[in-house]
Amino acid sequence: MKTKITELLHIETPIIQGGMAWVAEHHLAAAVSAAGGLGIIGAANAPADWVREEIRKAREITSNPIGVNVMLLSPYADEVAQVLVEEKVPVITTGAGNPGKYMEMWKSTGSKVIPVVASVALARMMERGGADAVIAEGTESGGHIGAATTMTLVPQVRDAVKVPVIAAGGIGDGRGMAAAFMLGADAVQIGTRFVVAKESICHENYKERIIKAKDIDSAVTGRSHGHPIRQLRNQMTKEYLKKEQEGVPFEELELMTVGALRNAVVDGDVKHGTVMAGQIAGLISKEQTCQEIIDEIMKETAALLQGAIDE
Fold it and tell me: What is the band of 311 on the pLDDT scale with cuts at 50, 70, 90?
């Protein structure tokens, strides 16, 4: 399937894997890219040397393009930004800030820069700043979220900018991808379904929690202090939300989540750790390889779009 994004990024299918902290490392990114999508290494708060090593390990597995997601609030952001130039990373996605100060440096080596946006205003700002595309991420997604839904955000961003738009948030199968195209997207970004991929290093407890999730199992913590995070309900979210309602100070709430994502992803503590996942988790029922996931989604999407044309 050819779209503006497949042509821009030189990939076979318009599916991008989310740059999820602790999850999106070289095994997963390389597997997604080898399957025809775009795998993303999540730099998160990792030091620059780790990011460089992950890029090189991924390239040992596949020669297909691989991207890196930069969390701009990371204390290592400046060093990571330089590594991406030195390694000539073809695609850079960004979150938690404005990549403006790195834009010229990244683009000078031919990198395509694609910021994640949660509003029309931010999408316009990123386009003016030189972004090659934007990822319009709805509140249905896992992790840090905005307020607008994917259904409302994507078409408004599509109308507001000329660069390609990638839809994210609540997309986990061909129906979601076909819907994203109808809303004006040129590709989709998928996170939660790739968490349970066979190539994902996530602890089996984490994968099983997603696979067994129901539609009502999503919880959002942090709304009271302006840092909402979507995850699956567990003992930690129950205690956190209770303290939020009681007006406990932000600093005390933050202490509850220090290291919590790593505890869930690496150690498998899905009771007291942070099990980040999108609202689409209730739709995911099995563990598959990245190739199987992409092939299944593309087959479903093609059938749905062809049906729409035939009708």
Answer: low
